[in-house]
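User: Last request for today: this protein with LAUPNLSC, please.
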Amino acid sequence: MKNQNYISWDQYFMGVAKLSALRSKDPNTQVGACIINPDRRIVAIGYNGLPMGLSDDEDFWQKNEDYSKSKYAYVVHAEANAILNATTSLKDATLYVTLFPCNECMKLLVQAGVKEIVYMSDKDKGKESHIASTTMMKKAGIKARQIQLETIVLETDK
Ligand SMILES: O=c1ccn([C@H]2C[C@H](O)[C@@H](COP(=O)(O)O)O2)c(=O)[nH]1
Ligand SMILES: [Zn+2]
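Assistant: Here's the final one, the structure of the complex with LAUPNLSC:
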């Protein structure tokens, strides 16, 4: 009889997104993204990080009223990194992401041809960027669904 304790596709791909988030150096919010094609092949992964040439050990991760001293001026979002890392076309792809995409990421996702977004956290709901992102997503015909990912316990861990 087959093993009954296997994880679902959603758990698998969101698990990869969560694992990717663990690479982020953002002290406040770590975001991970995993993009699959219609054949359920992983074609891109990413996390929020600084652009090449900027050291994580310099003080780029602070929040500061001065925009040029704030992380928001520098960080490449997880979805953007995933799109830049993509090994193939993202037409009709599905994005698994640990945080609902902001409006800047949504622009890129629409233009890349992503058709479905599966997300966990919606912590920025109500903010202007979230409203714009949702508007864009609906107009572009992208579906979205929120899932929770419980801790996965393997038989071998017991
Ligand atoms: O679509 C998104 C939105 C945000 N992020 C990243 C950018 C930042 O590194 C954090 C957000 O930091 P807060 O301190 O929670 O404002 O998340 C992203 O990767 N993708
Ligand atoms: Zn973003």
